[in-house]
Amino acid sequence: MMTGMNTEVCDPAELAALREIFASRPEALPPIGSDAVRSFEAEHGIVLPEPYRTFVAEVCDGLRAGPPSYGLLPLAQTPPDWGSGRPERLLAEPFPLTEAWLWEMEDDETALSEQEFEDRTAPVYDHGSLLLGTDGCGMYWHLIVTGPQRGHVWLIDENGAIPFGTRPGTCLMPGTPGFSGWVTHWAQDRSWFAEA
Percentage helix, strand, coil, to 5, in the chain? Predict the structure, then answer.
């Protein structure tokens, strides 16, 4: 399990780095303010992890162009391709994973029926996370807001769920974990995935 992030107090250096990255982007949406953040948290029974919490309140509530490819979503929005018939997103329910799960790699002996697969993966998509955006083709970036992975960013798509930012050589997506690390990685125009 990944640890070491402080999701309770906003690090001034992280916030300064985020401000610098977004200051030069005319496509950045204005921040929503602390009252709107507190209202959202009360409505959903959560406290957003830092530095994302301060970021949306004071710096920016979305970006029309990257990160990810189709823009950073405003707080609590879903991308157009998310679909309207999906189950309700339950932010207060803990995100169920603590390590990558590549369901496409499971062999036929452990394969689940379609209903079992849907029952098992639905919480991965809908519990304890905010959607940050999409890279298209069903690739969704989630900020985990509840559970042991709180504060981490995960990529969830048709192939599996992978955390961003773990030790190099041990994960498909090495980098600095958390929202700030994810944004910085994007701003440096680096590949999300480890080189083979």
Answer: 30, 15, 55
pTM: 0.89
Neighbours of 39 (CB within 10 A): 12
Contact (CB, 8 A) for 171 and 152: no
Q: Classify domain 12-75+89-187 at the CATH topology level.
A: SMI1/KNR4-like (3.40.1580)
Residue boundaries of the structural domains of the chain: 12-75+89-187
C-alpha atoms less than 13 angstroms from C-alpha of 153 in its C-beta half-sphere? 30
Are residues 29 and 61 in contact, defined by beta-carbon separation less than 8 angstroms?
yes
Summarised one tens digit per residue, pLDDT across range 152-180 is 999 999 889 999 986 555 557 778 899 99
Q: What is the DSSP letter of 154?
A: E
Residues contacting residue 66 through CB under 8 Å, at least 6 positions apart: 72, 186
- Name residue, tokens 């440096």: 188
